Amino acid sequence: MLFQPLSPDTEPTLAALHSYARAAIAVNRAHGIAHPKWWHVSLKVRAHGLVSDPVPLPGGGLLTVGLDITRHVVAMRTNTGVVEEFSMKEGSSGSAMGARIIGVAESLGLSGPFDHSRFDSDDEHSYDSDHAQCYLAVIADAYALFERHRATLGDSVGPVQLWPHGFDLAFEWFGTRKERFEGEELSSQLNLGLYLRDRPYFYSNPWPFDPALTSIALPGGAEWHTEGWEGSQLYYDSVAGDPLGAGRVEAFAKAVHAAALPSLTA
Q1: At what angle do helices 11-24 and 94-107 cross, to 10 degrees?
Q2: Given this model, what pLDDT does residue 84 score?
């Protein structure tokens, strides 16, 4: 596996995909089968792009909304076939794309409330097909690496998911330590993710975060991060194009897990 370099010119297309991902999840936010960890408002990686969890329709059947990046469309499908597709090449704003998606959902019997405030501004986007294909190649390879690492961690793990709000691909491993947070008792956790906006980076965030972790050296150019958020990161451009890059990411993931494990277990 060789992670593809991302050109700085890719950022406008990433902004467009981010915007359309947020629009694509609007139906699930309003009508999805709610998961206590909010997994119902994520998108899942597929060979052709990203897709929502199925939403039950009032008249029977299921609806999914996804970004088909191989064909550069937002696709709305039911179990009987494609309902509607909207071109991403047109560069529509997130608000316009969201309105189209909601209109189709309402025609299928899924009446509000829909949260329009989660869409971005009315500004139109610039979408380049080649840059979008490169993005898909990157998340496909990251997905494969995450799945391999995830398989070594036992069954206390969540699925690999694309979170539309932050536009990061990640999964969670759950420890046995319990912590109180905002009135709830939650399991400790450690994620592995890839954030792809601005200067992309792989990350891993132990929660709760033990400040003593920062004294532990990380491999392959990775470093601890404590300003704004607490965890560790490895910049994507430091491994992209490197034949040993995937191995460096795997070593980073294993090292953070080994370092954080004692503080995340009861």
Answers
A1: 30
A2: 96
